[in-house]
Specification:
Blueprint lengths: L11 E5 L5 H9 L4 E3 L21 H4 L10 E5 L9 H8 L4 E6 L2 H14 L7 H10 L19 H11 L5 E5 H6 L1 H12 L23 H22 L4 H4 L1
Parallel strand pairs: 1-3, 1-4, 2-3, 4-5
Length: 250
């Protein structure tokens, strides 16, 4: 349990995944008196290549916290860390004792939400299935400049989780199921607070965080097509995490 001793490193990261409740987690964590979070949630320290072109300056990270952060459990939320190829290695080099929190969502719903967000802001000209098929044609090594918004690849969780487990022991990794978080946010938050070693908080009010109001819902035809693309990954993620993902397949 947290004892209020000063620290010299960030203690945890909420590392992903995109469109799986990381903004809501950040909101709840920010309410805890023993937790310090970055003032700039979009700092993206460990997935910014410029920060690691030479010896990294961790002062850029530390100075983004409010004063007296060293007397609390310090953390940050960047939903792309779990997907960025070099982020976990960099995080482990910075703090081998780092605690990693990941929220995983039904990958089909995650892909549609990702597409709908970009579509609503005019960033995606293609309809959902057309964008998915474009990605299938462009499949290959992850290169941000070539494939900056991979709806499918971000939802293939097995290689991302295996990368985390290569750099961190499992007792330093907490994996949340997004659907369980939405169904019972209080139970999930208790699990998170216990994992971080801070007291549980009562009467935290739930409110939607970063939930888009999109033009339409996914169609049955779209769901069948995209779900088939994730079938193999879902079959592998279940034994890897000890989960039952029948709800993701239905």
């Amino acid at each position: 349990m947290f004892r209020g001793r000063p620290v010299d490193r960030v203690s945890f990261v909420v590392a992903g995944v995109q469109k799986a409740g990381t903004t809501a987690l950040h909101h709840f964590l920010s309410k805890h008196p023993h937790i310090a979070l970055l003032r700039d949630q979009a700092l993206h320290f460990f997935d910014n290549e410029e920060n690691f072109a030479s010896e990294p300056d961790y002062g850029v990270l530390h100075n983004n916290f409010a004063p007296k952060w060293r007397w609390r459990i310090a953390g940050e939320t960047t939903s792309g860390y779990v997907y960025w190829p070099s982020a976990m290695e960099r995080i482990a080099r910075y703090n081998p004792a780092m605690k990693i929190i990941v929220s995983l969502r039904n990958p089909t719903d995650r892909a549609f939400s990702h597409w709908a967000m970009r579509r609503s802001t005019g960033q995606e000209p293609l309809d959902f299935l057309d964008a998915i098929k474009r990605e299938e044609l462009d499949a290959g090594p992850f290169i941000p400049e070539v494939r900056p918004h991979p709806y499918i690849d971000r939802g293939r969780y097995v290689p991302q989780m295996e990368r985390i487990f290569r750099h961190f022991p499992r007792d330093q990794v907490l994996v949340i199921k997004y659907e369980s978080f939405r169904k019972d946010y209080a139970a999930t938050l208790n699990e998170v607070f216990d994992f971080l070693g801070v007291k549980r908080l009562r009467r935290l009010r739930n409110r939607q965080q970063n939930v888009g109001s999109y033009e339409r819902k996914i169609t049955p035809v779209e769901r069948r097509y995209v779900s088939a693309l994730f079938a193999d990954d879902i079959a592998k993620i279940e034994p890897l995490l000890g989960w039952d993902c029948a709800d993701w397949r239905s």
